[in-house]
Amino acid sequence: MKEFSKNRATLILMIAAIGSNVLGLGKDIVFNLHFKSDLLKIYFSAFRFPDLIYNLVVLGVLSSIFITFFIDHLNNKGKEDAFKFANNIINFTIIATSIFSIILFFMVPFLIHGLTPGFSPEEKELTAKLIQIMLLQPILMGLSSVIGGVLNSFKKFVAYALAPIFYNLGIIFGAIFLAPKYGIFGLAYGVLIGAFLHLLIQLVPVLKTGYRYKFVFNATDQSLRQMLKLAPPRIGGLLASQANLFIITIVGSLIGGGSITYLMYANDIQAFVVVVFGLSFATVVFPLLADYASLNKTEEFINELSTSFRQILFFAIPASLGLILLRGQIVRLLLGYGFFKFTDTKLTAAILGVFALSLFAQASILILVRAFYALKDTKTPFYAALSAVLVNIIGSITLPKFFDQYVADPKNGITFAVVGLAAAFTIASFVNMLILLIALHKRLGGLNDGKIINSLSKIIIASAAMAISIQGLKYVISPIINPIHPVLGFTVQTLFVIFAGAGVYFFLAYILGCDEIKGFKNIFKRTPSYLQSDSDESKN
Fold first, then answer.
1. Per-residue tens of pLDDT for the chain, all 540 residues
2. What contacts 421, CB < 8 A, 6 or more positions away?
């Protein structure tokens, strides 16, 4: 294998993540043009259930724990044994996700009453039907995730990076071409199409690694048993994380109106930053951390983790500030038309601003939990996530009342109670991150803290300058451009301010000598094998 370049792999994942999330935001635009908020809340609520199975069975056992054990097999027993182990996990996944989906299929009509208490009987019935249709999604995504884990272990990220793009394309296809005939059910069919495409795009690349499917199911396999032993805390941690979204859904349904829709739209926008600047680094670094842990290279493990943590902060902190300052412009640009009214955009922007406060915490959590998984420790992330859920529950009960009473806008008849849910989620994210950091410090004896503090000080200075430039440019450009053509002018203003602010930040970061920007200087000098096209590989 040619030279591995972590930064190059991260770059391609970031580009793919941007493409996927742009499509995701485009999906929201399509939704907004075709469906009212009261109908979309049913789809968003229904989607939580198959997503729960996917998170519990697939992410709970496969995406993190599987890679650690697969790399152990590769390092210690060779390819053939690793592929045999992968086939065992694939068959386990099919069985487990099928069982969960079948059970939930029959239980949904009974569960729906307690999980959407603010819905009318008709809305509950429609939500239940959508859930039952989408229960095939976890099975397809489960298979795709195992295959993606194999590709990641071989440090081949292209198909894995493209899979979410095809997933979103499937949903958009359902919204545009199926929804006119099948209504809201068209979105559910689109989810299934997207899940199938997510799997299909990764099949050819995984075959090129030498992998071949064989029916193997050994329930007594030692690695499978160890995985299942590590799984309960991991599943518990994911349950805790999913509980945060379920709490928002339940309380949001009680607040009423389009609260759930506002929250989901704002979450989709902020998730763009979390995925691009958090998940991209975490995905690439995880196999490296698992390698170092497998070979007992503690110093290299700490150096890699510290470097990646600083790189996430380098991108996520300014993105967090930019999103706060441009929340209104971004929401109006993406959603300010169709069925979305002034009140809708104002509330969504307020929620987005509060979510954005914790962007760097959410992004950091993705790499911190993977450090524990590489060490085969799933309990610590569980306790951290559980603590965050408790904070979120308390906040979700108390903060909506506070925002309703003290942050209301009676002039426009707007209540900001729903913003309290975003505030609770944000506080919980900080709690989660801090617990993980403290635990890692205790276990590893530090994370090169001096380098983190040095980088953080430079990031804060550059981010502050960026914030000042963004705020100033907003008011300077607006009276010049907007009178020419309001919509076009507003679009140009927003895009110009974003790029200008980013330019200021990267320029100052370079002047200040941020190590994080230096790491990307030689990124285009050589193309590693895992980023080459399939045709290039066939020539070697």
1. 333 467 777 788 888 888 887 887 788 788 878 888 778 889 988 887 787 777 666 665 666 788 889 998 998 898 999 999 999 999 988 998 899 889 989 999 888 887 788 788 999 999 999 999 999 999 999 899 999 999 988 988 889 889 989 999 999 999 999 999 999 999 999 999 999 999 999 999 999 999 999 998 998 899 988 888 887 787 777 777 767 777 777 777 777 666 777 888 888 888 888 888 888 888 888 888 988 988 889 999 999 999 999 999 999 999 999 999 999 888 888 776 666 677 788 888 889 999 999 999 999 999 999 999 889 898 899 899 889 989 998 998 888 888 877 665 656 555 678 888 889 999 999 999 999 999 999 999 989 999 999 999 999 999 999 999 998 888 787 666 665 555 676 778 788 899 999 999 999 999 999 888 876 555 444 444 434 434 344 333
2. 247, 248, 251, 252, 255, 259, 263, 351, 395, 396, 399, 400
Q: How far is CA 153 from the centre of its chain?
A: 20
Q: How many domains does the chain have?
A: 1
Q: Which helix (H) or strand (E) holds 492?
A: helix 486-511
Displacement of CA 39 from its chain's centroid (Å)? 24
- In a domain? residue 1: no
Q: Is residue 452 part of a domain?
A: yes
| Secondary structure (DSSP) of 17-37 | HHHHHHHHHHHHHHHHHHS-H
The answer to the question of residue 307 being in a domain is yes
In a domain, 462, yes or no: yes
The span from the CA of 313 to the CA of 458, in Å, is 11
The structure tokens listed for 384 are: 């951290």
Q: At what angle do helices 419-444 and 222-255 cross, to 10 degrees?
A: 150
Close Cβ partners of 230 (under 8 Å, ≥ 6 residues apart): 65, 376, 378
Closest Cα partner for 371 from 311, 316, 314, 290? 290
Q: Find where tokens 């709490």 sit.
A: 247
Q: Which domain holds residue 285?
A: 6-539
In the DSSP assignment, the letter for residue 54 is: I
Longest dimension (CA), the chain: 71
- In a 3-state reduction of DSSP, which class is residue 496? helix
pTM (two decimals): 0.75
Q: Give the three-class secondary structure for 512.
A: coil
